[in-house]
Amino acid sequence: MDTTLLLPMTAHVALAALLYGLLTIARAPAIWGIGRRADGSNPWAKVEPRLSANLSNQFEWPLFFHVACVLLMLLGTSHAAIALAWLFIAGRLLHSAVQVLTANVRLRGLAFTVNFLAVLGLWGLLLRAAFEHA
Prior knowledge:
By secondary structure, this protein is mostly helical. The protein contains 5 helices and no strands.
C-alpha cells in the first residue's frame, strides 16, 4: 500500500488539533476564569465563535478528502493525487486563516472553492483508478 497521502492527511489532523488548542485557550477566560480582563470580560470573545465554526468545518467537506485518500492509497496513488491532496491542505489553511482572522466571506468562499475542487479532483482520480482495477 502506498502511504504517500498519509502526510497531507496528517497535516489536516494537525490543523484540527491546533484549532482545538486555540479554541480551548479562547474559552479559558469564560470557563475557568484564566486570562480574564480586569473587568471580567473575555479578550477572545470575538474570535471564539469563528474558531468554533472553523473547527466544525474541519469535519464536513474534509471527510470526503480523507475517504478519497484512503481509497487511493489502496488502489494506487499518482503524482496528480499527491498534488491535489497538498492543494487541499493549502486551501484548508487559507480557509481557516480567513475564517478565524477576518470576516471576509468572499475570500473565505474562494478558499473553500480550492478545497472543493481539489477533493472533486481526488474523487475523479479515484473513479479512474477504480475502473482501471475492475
